[in-house]
Specification:
The protein is α/β, with parallel strands linked by helices. It has ten helices and eleven strands.
Length: 282
C-alpha cells in the first residue's frame, strides 16, 4: 500500500508557485475575510496567511466582529473587487448564522473567486471551460496525477454530495473519463456500491464511516474528511488501519488532502494574477 503524500506534493506545488510568482511584474494579492471568532476558522486563516508568505504573495486579512451586518460585508467585498492589487478574495466559511452565504459568494467578482464557489465559475467547471478549480477536488485530482493514477475507465464512488466537495469531485472525475457514482445519506446498499469502486473518495465528515469490508482489494481510497475522534485526535472518514490492508493507495489524515486544498488555493490565486496582469498588459 502506498501513502498519497499530500503534504509533500503541496510543498512542491508551493515551491513552483513561488518560482512563477517571481516572474510576475506584480505580486499576487489575496484578501481573506473572517467574520466572528470561530477557533477552527482562525486556524485555517492563519494557515492561508503562512501559505501566502511561502509563495511570495501579498495578503490582507479582514477580521470582522460577529455582529457585522450583511450590508457591511457586501460593501467590503465590493471594495476589494475594485482593488487592482487584490487578485483573490476568500470569505472564510462558515459565517455567523445571520449572514447569507449565497449572497456573499455571488458578491465576489468571478475573476477573484479563488475558492471557485461563484455560480459562474461552477458553471465553467461543469462545462469543462478553463478557469479555477474548486480547491479540495482540484487537490485530489493533482494527487492522483502525481502518483500516475488515471481515472479513465475506472469505477469511481464519491461519498458526499456537498457543493464544496462531493458534486465538483464527481464532475472532475467524470471529465477524466471515470464512471462515477455519488452516494449520500439516502443511498441504500452503501457497502455493496463502495466495494465496486476502483477509486473511492469519502467527504462525509463521519468518523469510521469507511471500513475495511467496504473497500475493494487494490482500490485507491481518498479521505477528504477532517474529523475529531473520541480522544480529540484528527481523523477522517476512513478506518485507516483496516482499509490500508486492502487499498493500493490511501491518503492519511492529517497530511493528505488538507495540505493540497491550501496549495490549490495558492495556485488559483497565482492563476488569477497571471490572467489579470496579462489582461492589464493588453
Amino acid at each position: 500500500m502506498t501513502i498519497l503524500d499530500g503534504k509533500g506534493l503541496a510543498a512542491k506545488l508551493k515551491a513552483q508557485t513561488r518560482e512563477e510568482t517571481a516572474r510576475l511584474p506584480r505580486r499576487p494579492g489575496l484578501a481573506v475575510i473572517l467574520v466572528g471568532d470561530d477557533p477552527a476558522s482562525r486556524v485555517y486563516v492563519n494557515g492561508k496567511k503562512k501559505d501566502c508568505e511561502e509563495c511570495g504573495f501579498y495578503s490582507e486579512e479582514y477580521a470582522l466582529p460577529e455582529a457585522t451586518s450583511q450590508q457591511e460585508l457586501l460593501e467590503l467585498i465590493r471594495t476589494l473587487n475594485d482593488r487592482d492589487n487584490i487578485d483573490g478574495i476568500l470569505v472564510q466559511m462558515p459565517l455567523p448564522r445571520h449572514l447569507l452565504p449565497r449572497e456573499v459568494i455571488q458578491a465576489i467578482s468571478p475573476e477573484k473567486d479563488v475558492d471557485c464557489f461563484h455560480p459562474q465559475n461552477v458553471g465553467a467547471m461543469f462545462t469543462g471551460s478553463a478557469g479555477f478549480l474548486p480547491c479540495t477536488p482540484g487537490g485530489v485530482m493533482a494527487l492522483l496525477d502525481e502518483y500516475g493514477i488515471d481515472p479513465a475507465g475506472k469505477q469511481a464512488v464519491v461519498l458526499g454530495r456537498s457543493n464544496i466537495v462531493g458534486k465538483p469531485m464527481a464532475v472532475l472525475l467524470l471529465d477524466r473519463n471515470a464512471t462515477v457514482t455519488i452516494c449520500h445519506s439516502k443511498t441504500p446498499n452503501l457497502t455493496e456500491i463502495c466495494r465496486q469502486a476502483d477509486i473511492l473518495v469519502s467527504a462525509v465528515g463521519k468518523t469510521g464511516l469507511v471500513t475495511g469490508d467496504m473497500v475493494k482489494e487494490g482500490a485507491v481510497v481518498v479521505d477528504v474528511a477532517m474529523n475529531r475522534d473520541e480522544n480529540g485526535r484528527l481523523c477522517g472518514d476512513v478506518d485507516f488501519l483496516a482499509v490500508s490492508r486492502k487499498a493500493s493507495y490511501l491518503t492519511p489524515v492529517p497530511g493528505g488532502v488538507g495540505p493540497m486544498t491550501r496549495a490549490m488555493l495558492m495556485r488559483n490565486t497565482l492563476f488569477s494574477a497571471q490572467r489579470r496582469q496579462n489582461f492589464e498588459k493588453g
